UniProtKB/TrEMBL annotation:
Primary location class: cytoplasm
Pfam families: Cpn60_TCP1
Statement: the UniProt record of this protein carries the keyword DNA-binding: no
Protein family per UniProt: Belongs to the TCP-1 chaperonin family.
Signal peptide interval: none
Keyword Lipoprotein: no
The protein's name: T-complex protein 1 subunit delta
Cellular location(s): Cytoplasm
Function of the molecule: Molecular chaperone; assists the folding of proteins upon ATP hydrolysis. Known to play a role, in vitro, in the folding of actin and tubulin.
Organism name: Dunaliella salina
Record keywords, A-Z: ATP-binding, Chaperone, Cytoplasm, Nucleotide-binding
Length: 504
């Protein structure tokens, strides 16, 4: 290890202070970077990747995830917004902004000589109290109260580029979640049961919630097979309709024509055997999982399948198998010997249709449809479509939050101010350092109203006051309570760090 230079020989405590304040500074810089995108009038960020990809987004988690951050403490803020994304799905900008404001307050307190441990403990208490306050001001919401759910989804969409379409997207998000929710076990809600298929062409207005299933893959029509099947019997298969291949190192050497004929005949018989077994089960639509080992179909097998009037959709992703089998109420078939009629799904119509610039395969009128939802999302270009997808995800998460914890609070910073008032009052009953720290915590939350007003181009001091509940700006309690809790946790972690130890 090289000897430390003269200038680096700081006294122990001075160095610790140095590491702490440089950590705080870096983390604050990250928070400042996303501050301008908070709220309905917040700005969007254009993220340009070195490979030329461009993303336009307002989503805090997405912005931070794409940002090149190297300082370890700054990275903690990136993680912070990620955890908010996992817990609540919305409020990923707020959590970082609040964290930045809390850190600023910490810096002031530390400069005034308060010990980090005292700050950390007081903040912990304050955060718990803040959650209690939120519970007091929250109003409970019933899942039958569709209007309230739609209002909450609209609030989350109001800050997005696609907010003008929220009259379409909000009810859609609510319907999706209610459709996949199991009333007996509402807490087991899995957003993977909602499939969003982005397809460019048209506008977001053309998006629809499909009563059925849609694939991006097209029907195979090289051999003239059907592209529309009524009264469909659908099989989801995980094997290939092509002759098996030899191992990589093996060669089959053919020396004369009769042998070649035999190989060809063998292939024909094998393929024909497969197709016959499939046809015998009554199947008329085949969904074939993508294979990396060999071709899912050959020219020959497509020809036979077309003759048997079986529609073929290839390249189904492995990840989609579960979703498809759940939706169609069918079982994936791994080998032709297991091809039984009871494993097939039934639908009124399977059809390849034109959507925008491309084509999709649509399955409608599914018998015994499972609890899934499919949204065909439309947008004029890739940028809009990407942001629409992220925004819809936020709205879905908001509804999920409400399913898990059925309380709504008023948005537009009114709940943050409620906490501010309650904590300031409470601080009066505390003594000494604690009181100062709790008051600092309360003041830090003022960053939300300030920022919302500032981003709207208003003077934060002269902002108008209205009743946010009457303005229909409501959001799930879980979003704000987890933002406050997670931000505090992150601040406490940063406070407790007094040294950075690089290792190789
Ligand atoms: N119509 C409105 N009027 C006033 N404030 C609003 C309105 N709609 C939303 N807000 C407020 O805007 C804030 C949310 O802004 P935004 O959606 O940009 O950030 P976020 O939810 O923290 O992060 P993200 O959506 O990127 O995950 C909340 O404090 C919310 O109460
Ligand atoms: Mg939001």
């Amino acid at each position: 290890m090289p000897a430390p230079k003269q200038g680096e020989l700081l006294k122990g405590s001075a160095k610790k202070k140095d590491v702490r304040s440089s950590n705080i500074e870096s983390a604050k810089a990250v928070a400042d970077a996303v501050r301008t995108s908070l709220g309905p009038r917040g700005m969007d960020k254009m993220i340009a990747a070195p490979n030329g990809d461009v993303i336009i987004t307002n989503d805090g988690a997405t912005i931070l995830q794409r940002m090149t951050v190297t300082q370890p403490a700054a990275k903690m803020l990136v993680e912070l917004s990620k955890s908010q994304d996992v817990v609540a799905g919305d409020g990923t900008t707020s959590v970082v902004v609040v964290c930045g404001a809390l850190l600023k307050k910490c810096q002031d307190l530390l400069d005034r000589g308060v010990h980090p441990t005292i700050v950390s403990d007081a903040f912990n208490m304050a955060a718990q109290k803040a959650c209690e306050v939120l519970e007091q001001v929250s109003v409970s919401v019933d899942l039958d109260d569709r209007a309230s759910l739609v209002r909450a989804a609209t609030t989350s969409l109001s800050s997005k580029v696609v907010s003008q379409y929220s009259s379409l997207l909000s009810p859609m998000a609510v319907d999706c979640v209610l459709r996949v929710m199991d009333p007996a076990r509402p807490n087991m809600l899995d957003l993977r049961d909602i499939k969003v298929l982005p397809k460019s062409g048209g506008t977001v207005d053309d998006s629809e919630l499909i009563d059925g299933l849609v694939f991006d893959q097209k029907a195979a029509k090289a051999a003239g097979g059907p592209i529309k099947v009524e009264k469909a019997k659908i099989a989801l298969i995980q094997f290939c309709i092509s002759p098996p291949k030899t191992d990589l190192e093996n060669n089959v050497i053919i020396s004369d024509y009769s042998q070649m004929d035999r190989v060809y005949k063998e292939e024909r018989n094998y393929t024909l055997g497969l197709v016959k077994k499939i046809k015998a089960s009554g199947c008329n639509v085949l969904l074939i999982q993508k294979s990396i080992l060999r071709d899912a179909t050959t020219e020959l097998s497509l020809h036979y399948l077309a003759k048997a009037k079986i529609m073929v959709v290839r390249d189904i992703e492995r990840d989609d198998i579960e979703f498809i089998s759940k939706t169609l109420n069918c079982l994936p078939i791994a080998h032709v010997n297991h091809f039984k009629p009871e494993k097939l799904g039934t639908a009124d119509l399977v059809e390849e249709v034109e959507v925008g610039k491309g084509r999709v395969v649509k399955i409608t009128g599914i018998a015994n449809k499972g609890k899934t939802a499919t949204v065909l999302l439309r947008g004029s270009n890739k940028l809009v479509l990407g942001e629409a997808e992220r925004s819809l995800h936020d709205a879905l998460c908001v509804i999920r939050c409400l399913v898990n914890k059925r309380f709504l609070i008023a948005g537009g910073a009114s709940s943050e101010m409620e906490i501010n008032l309650a904590l300031s009052n409470w601080a009066k009953s505390l003594g000494g350092m604690e009181s100062i720290c709790v008051r600092a915590f309360a003041e830090a939350l003022e960053v939300v109203p300030y920022t919302l007003a500032e981003n709207a181009g208003l003077n934060p001091i002269q902002g108008t006051i209205t009743n946010m509940l009457e303005e229909n700006v409501v959001q799930p309690m879980l979003v704000t309570s987890s933002a406050v809790t997670l931000a505090t946790e992150c601040v406490r972690m940063i406070l407790k760090i007094d040294d950075i130890v690089p290792v190789r």
